[in-house]
Design goal:
heterodimer, A: 17 helices, B: 624 residues, alpha/beta, GMP Synthetase, Chain A, domain 3, 8-stranded mixed β-sheet, 12 strands, elongated
Chain lengths: 383, 624
């Protein structure tokens, strides 16, 4: 029996979550700060750049519609998704403010991704190399500096996918909880997030059994617990919009910045497919790993498939622009769902090699193509 | 004389008298040697002989007469010998012999030192007789019934009036309430609109704080999912001789229809019978339940204690009487219909051993064996699944005050006595005790074991039960807010705020529900302009947001709770929570009314209404 003077324990001692790394809070905060700093620097540099941050401007315009204290509330229908609009309103529509928020969010998101790589036992070199494909290439900086809404969506998607992976692999209902809440928040932040939710519902029957959930009603229950927050959030907002305005679907209709199916249904589908395929080609790390998985364990591609299908659908519908997002989502998918567990020295070397190749390809594409990403980099450095 | 020599002497004597066979004795002696128990206790617990025969044999061995104190007609007036002395020192003055010598009953060996102590207390040499322990208890109940009743009813009140719910409001609370009512009335006369707007915001925020806190605690509790609380190997290796004596209290009232079940349910506990005493607490006016229980032929370690009649006739008063007679180091409360998992007591033992002395109680999870019986039992199960599987572990994770559930609370007896036992005037004495523990700087934890109960199948019965629970939460809130500064000082600000959000927030939430629903309905039926006078846009928006977000959060945690229990068929029933809360609201307003009109009235919940059998294979366990 412990003496009264000794440190009393709980009936279960507090433990860190498996993905809490570094274990010491101070170290964790330092890492987040370090990971956020480059994005803060780019945000400050972008102040003087002539580049028009169209996505952030559109968000600022939506934020301007928010009238705090206004009793009529007729604007509610027009600000969907409301949380990103409210954030923009709180920031006064400032592009710099949005970029700094994006940097802070990235500090957390990248720390979590790093923790996942450490948890999976990739070792310091491979971890650094994989992380480098995100922080040493322009797409993530482009997103952070120009498209807060998409970045928040990606960050929440990372949380959701990480949750779904743990929900399936470790049969953790807590992770399912987390995934459901992240999706619920995502649909209130990012107009394309509900596509991820719908894709998730469509493929849920395929991973329910793998998640250790069997028996009558297991499929329906799994879909319900993963999607309830997203469905409830959208329905609630629709109700509020209906009540306070004559056009409850107005916000949803205006969610596509360049209109729905830009270039027509077929043209948009082809363009979205091309964008995803080209980005895959520019991401050998992801491509190689997905190929290996497809051969060895095709079922393990279900979760990445959810994200990829959601991404494709949102590009097709015109809910997001390809610039940067596709690449960032693919690398996040690699970290969360495709990276090998506890690879040996040879595989680690291969990972490092593929990551370096990806870095080179990434820069080559950016600097030689006439894409928005390349133009932004040139505008930023004043070339 | 050394212990094993004494045991051998007693054993040989029992064999000589033909009460047990040599083979039985040898087997019992092995158990006694391994467990550290007395040979007599082991023999009685395995049914080799009854308690009375053992006591008669011991009287013969120790050279004292055997007596039945409960049959003594006249009580000996012994100044200075009170109930406390009798219970603590285990001797009872019975009568005077014709020669004037006082006759005293003891239940342990009348050693020279014991005789001397008795003589010192009485001021004269006693004539010592040996009594059976259970008959001794009955004699104490007969002799000191009114004292016991007073101690059980008024003990806490006498010791610490501020902790007792005997008085609903202390003077300053009465003044504050009166001032608040007058202020609201005057404000309504001056500006009705402002008052309605303010009250709308207050109601909405109460709802959001109450539901938000539960959601936050549940999220934290979910993190504990993969924590192994009890190491299966350690549990399996726990030797009998390392186990403490355990008392099980089972308060019953008007439960003749189910009381026989408890013998089977508690008989399945994996704990050595000679270290276990099950005290069935039967009210004095409830002969029917006692007769039903006796007819079920309970084993030797099941005993009856008659709870002396008198107000308040409540479960906590019965438990306080039981606590007076408890001889265990640990103690647990079960209801008559409870079916605890067999290893629950051992898990509690390990939990107490691994924690510090400040851990005074551990709560096992409660769930229902008749979850699928009707919509009400489904909703009840959803609620309990999130409450016990997510929220209480979340409170423990944050070291916050845990309001205990009605049964399966395991206590350190020393800590429980230090806290003053249960408050018989509080109709949720369990929740109150958990908060009192926090308010005294002690701690309540949870263990990963489940007790299956019968969910309420009847709507009127449900409203009665809930009205008592919600009234009790109101009582508990008022009691612990009598000296808020002391509460903050001793328990800390976090504990105080969590107590307010949970115990105060729960009744507030249910009282707020009809108001928020009315606003919601009005928003469906009326135009914004028609509502604008009393509910300007932002107030309406806030109310709807509170209702929407608060409801969604609570629906979600209840769905997750059922999902964790692998009760997939219940998950979608989570969406029916808004209707379930309306039922709670009816109970909440009834509870509030009773708090004013009859604060200590115990709304009895009828049990045994289910048509479902608690077959073990049908009970889902929590898994990671």
């Amino acid at each position: 029996m412990a003496s009264p003077a000794s440190t009393p324990l709980r009936t279960a001692s507090r433990r860190s979550a498996a993905d809490t790394w570094p274990a010491r809070p101070a170290a964790r905060w330092l890492l987040r700060l370090a990971l956020a700093l480059p994005f803060v620097a780019v945000a400050l540099l972008s102040r003087d750049s002539p580049w028009p941050a169209d996505a952030n401007r559109a968000l600022a315009a939506r934020g301007d519609l928010v009238r705090w204290g206004d009793t009529s509330l007729g604007w509610t229908a027009d600000v969907y998704p409301p949380l990103s609009a409210a954030l923009s309103s709180l920031l006064g529509g400032s592009n710099l403010g949005m970029s700094l928020v994006a940097a802070a969010v990235l500090g957390f998101t990248l720390q979590r991704l790093t923790a996942v790589l450490v948890r999976e036992g990739l070792g310091p070199w491979a971890t650094g190399a994989v992380l480098g494909t995100l922080v040493l290439t322009p797409p993530l900086y482009y997103l952070a500096a120009n498209n807060l809404e998409a970045l928040l969506g990606v960050a929440l998607l990372v949380l959701a996918l990480d949750g779904i992976a743990a929900f399936v692999e470790r049969q953790s209902t807590e992770a399912g909880f987390r995934a459901g809440l992240a999706l619920g928040l995502a649909v209130m932040v990012d107009p394309g997030a509900w596509l991820y939710a719908l894709t998730l519902a469509a493929v849920a029957p395929f991973f329910v059994r793998r998640a250790g959930r069997s028996g009558p009603g297991a499929h329906t229950a799994t879909v319900a617990v993963l999607l309830f927050p997203a469905v409830a959030a959208v329905l609630f907002w629709l109700y509020i919009s209906w009540w306070f305005s004559a056009d409850p679907l107005g916000g949803l209709e205006h969610a596509a910045p360049g209109g729905w199916f830009p270039g027509g249904v077929a043209g948009s589908a082809a363009a979205a497919g091309r964008a995803v395929a080209l980005t895959l080609l520019a991401a050998p790390l992801v491509l190689a790993s997905a190929t290996v998985r497809a051969v060895r364990d095709p079922w393990s591609l279900i979760a990445p498939g959810i994200a990829l299908a959601g991404l494709y659908l949102s590009l097709w519908l015109g809910l997001r622009e390809p610039g940067g997002q596709t690449y960032v989502v693919l690398v996040a998918l690699y970290v969360l769902l495709l990276a090998p567990r506890a690879p040996g020295p040879r595989r680690r070397a291969l990972i490092v090699g593929a990551a370096v190749l990806q870095l080179a390809v990434g820069w080559l594409v950016v600097l030689t193509s006439g894409s928005a990403l390349g133009d932004w980099v040139r505008a930023l450095i004043g070339a | 004389m050394r212990r094993h020599q004494q045991d051998r002497r007693i054993g040989d004597h029992l064999v000589d008298r033909g009460l047990v066979t040599k083979e039985t004795l040898d087997a019992a002696q092995r158990v006694a040697a391994e467990s550290g128990a007395y040979i007599g206790e082991v023999l009685v617990s395995i049914g080799a002989l009854d308690s009375e025969s053992l006591t008669r044999a011991l009287a013969d061995l120790w050279g004292v007469p055997y007596a039945v104190p409960s049959r003594t007609a006249a009580a000996l007036d012994a100044p200075g010998v009170d109930l406390g002395t009798v219970l603590a020192d285990r001797w009872l003055p019975l009568e005077r012999r014709a020669d004037g010598v006082p006759v005293v009953a003891v239940v342990d060996e009348p050693t020279a030192s014991r005789r001397a102590a008795i003589a010192a207390a009485l001021g004269e040499e006693p004539f010592v007789v040996l009594a059976d322990r259970w008959d001794f208890q009955q004699a104490v109940l007969d002799r000191y019934g009114s004292d016991l009743r007073d101690r059980a009813s008024l003990g806490l009140w006498g010791r610490a009036p501020a902790h007792s719910a005997r008085v609903v409001l202390v003077p300053w609370q009465r003044v504050a309430l009166a001032v608040a009512v007058v202020a609201v009335a005057l404000a309504a006369v001056a500006d009705l609109r402002a008052v309605v707007v303010t009250l709308s915001v207050v109601v909405g925020l109460s709802f959001l704080v109450g539901t938000g806190f539960k959601f936050w605690a549940s999220l934290r509790g979910a993190r504990m999912e993969h924590v192994t609380r009890t190491d299966a190997a350690v549990l399996a290796a726990l030797p009998d001789h390392d186990l403490p004596r355990y008392t099980v209290l089972v308060p019953v009232y008007k439960e003749a229809n189910i009381v026989a079940n408890l013998i089977g349910n508690l008989g399945a506990l994996d704990y050595p019978a000679h270290l276990l005493e099950v005290l069935i607490l039967v009210e004095e006016d409830d002969a029917e339940t006692r007769a039903a229980a006796e007819a079920a032929h309970p084993p030797a370690h099941f005993r009856f204690i008659t709870v002396p009649a008198g107000a308040p006739q409540t479960k906590p008063k019965a438990c306080n009487v039981g606590l007076e007679f408890a001889t265990g180091e640990l103690l647990v409360i079960y209801d008559a219909e409870d079916k605890p998992e067999p290893d629950q007591l051992k898990k509690a033992v390990l939990a107490f051993r691994e924690a510090g002395e400040d851990l005074v109680c551990v709560q096992a999870a409660l769930n229902y064996f008749n979850a699928d019986e009707n919509p009400l039992t489904r909703m009840f199960t959803l609620e309990y699944s999130f409450w016990f599987d997510y929220m209480l572990p979340g409170l423990e994770y944050g070291r916050l005050a845990i309001p205990l559930g009605g049964t399966s609370n395991h206590f350190r007896v020393s800590g429980l006595r230090r806290l003053g036992g249960w408050d018989p005037f509080n109709v949720t004495e369990d929740a109150d005790l958990g908060i009192r523990a926090a308010a005294e700087g002690l701690r309540v934890g949870v263990i990963d074991s489940t007790t299956y109960e019968e969910a309420n199948t009847s709507y009127p019965n449900f409203v009665r039960q809930r009205s008592r629970w919600i009234k009790g939460y109101m009582q508990t809130t008022l009691v612990h807010l009598r000296d808020p500064l002391r509460l903050v000082r001793v328990a800390g600000l976090r504990q105080t705020l969590s107590f307010l959000a949970l115990v105060g927030g729960t009744p507030a939430t249910f009282l707020a529900v009809p108001v928020l629903y009315a606003v919601f309905l009005a928003s469906l039926l009326l135009d914004p302009e028609q509502l604008a006078f009393l509910f300007p846009g932002w107030v309406l928006w806030l109310s709807l947001l509170n209702l929407g977000v608060g409801s969604a959060l609570m629906i979600y945690v209840s769905m997750m709770g059922a999902f964790k229990r692998r009760r997939y068929g219940l998950v979608l029933w989570g969406a029916a929570n808004p209707a379930y809360w309306l039922l709670h609201s009816v109970a909440a307003y009834k509870g509030l009314w009773q708090l004013v009109t009859k604060p200590h009235y115990w709304e009895k919940t009828a049990h045994g209404l289910t048509g479902v059998d608690a077959a073990p294979h049908r009970l889902p366990a929590v898994r990671g």
